[in-house]
Amino acid sequence: MIHGSRLAVRVTVKTEVVPGICVVELRHPLGEPLPVFAAGAHIDVALPGGHIRQYSLCNSPAERHRYLLGVLDQPGGRGGSRSMHQEVHIGDVLTISEPRCHFALHEGASESVLLAGGIGITPILAMAEHLSMRGRSFSLDYFARSAGTAAFLDRISGAAWAGQARTHFDDQGGAELGAIIGAPHAGKHLYVCGPPGFLGAALDAARRLGWNEARLHREYFSNETAGAGGGAFGVQIASTGKIIQVAPEQSIAAALEIEGIVVPTSCEQGVCGTCITRVLAGSPDHRDLFLTDEEHAANDCMTVCCSRSTSPLLVLDL
Ligand code: FES
């Protein structure tokens, strides 16, 4: 499902910039300005194969004439990025959502540390452009397997802020995350985007240095533990008292939809927060990467696209 207002855009550029990563430029079909977006924002894209996928905008938020995406082909994935790579062509018109931002810069920050792993560079690029335009203090560290697999190296080296960016490639030896992140202070915020292992390592390094959770910002691109099986349980709809059974390989959202109760979903793997639903009783088995540890411990809300239950019954505020 596309969330909020829908927009038709034309694919004006599609280029494979390194093997497996294409850059896609989208413009209004009549050349009109596109809705503004915040650094770190993403859009939903309806793809020809029927998938709806979220992609971060990686151009400067000051640009109104286009949206720029960087898309990693994932042959073993759920089909969305494969469709973008194989079935989308220059000249096609796609339906997208207006931009939304779950990974926003903290406007009051006096110093920003931007960390990107692989294709996680996309929202980080928009952040760097925004911070540079505002004359804010920031650094960008971009980690990839090798220079040959890292997209946007030309753009980074040609940017006005190139002097604030560093690249780190596995085949040249690792870099010490703790040294890059550095000691915390009240105005310093950390933004990290990339695969789960990279995010976990970066956040753990920051915590070991004494960083406060409120200044750690992250965006996951995938969740390997989402909905990975489990037993059957029931969910009760608080407004009607009806109990719906959730089968072992079925998500709560899917079980609800069969009964005509549609909870909006987007990523379907616990990384976007679209499907968060209040829990009135029972113990969720949280499998998302969106809610914080504190929110998981509070057990009063959950992502119904992928999380399950450790109790026989969950009562949902629906
Ligand atoms: Fe994205 Fe559930 S749909 S977290």
Keywords:
318 residues, alpha/beta, Rossmann fold, Ubiquitin-like (UB roll), 3 domains, 18% helix, binds FE2/S2 (inorganic) cluster
Itemize the secondary structure elements and their pairings.
Layout: E1 6-18, E2 21-27, E3 42-46, E4 52-56, E5 67-72, H1 80-87, E6 93-97, E7 111-117, H2 121-133, E8 137-144, H3 153-158, E9 165-169, H4 177-181, E10 188-194, H5 196-208, E11 216-220, E12 233-237, E13 243-246, H6 252-258, E14 276-281, E15 284-285, H7 293-298, E16 301-303, E17 308-309, E18 313-316
Parallel strand pairs: 7-8, 7-10, 8-9, 10-11, 12-18
Antiparallel strand pairs: 1-2, 1-6, 2-5, 3-4, 3-6, 12-13, 14-16, 14-18, 15-17
The structure holds FE2/S2 (inorganic) cluster.
What this model shows, in words?
This protein has 318 residues and is an alpha/beta fold. Helices cover 18% and strands 31% of the residues. It is built from seven helices and 18 strands. It has helices at 80-87, 121-133, 153-158, 177-181, 196-208, 252-258, 293-298; strands spanning 6-18, 21-27, 42-46, 52-56, 67-72, 93-97, 111-117, 137-144, 165-169, 188-194, 216-220, 233-237, 243-246, 276-281, 284-285, 301-303, 308-309, 313-316. The strands form four sheets. Strands 4-3-6-1-2-5 form a six-stranded antiparallel beta sheet, with helices on one face. Strands 9-8-7-10-11 form a five-stranded parallel beta sheet, with helices on both faces. A five-stranded mixed beta sheet has the order 13-12-18-14-16. Helix 5 links the parallel strand 10 (188-194) and strand 11. The longest helix has 13 residues, at 121-133. The model has no long low-confidence stretch (mean pLDDT 92). The structure holds FE2/S2 (inorganic) cluster.
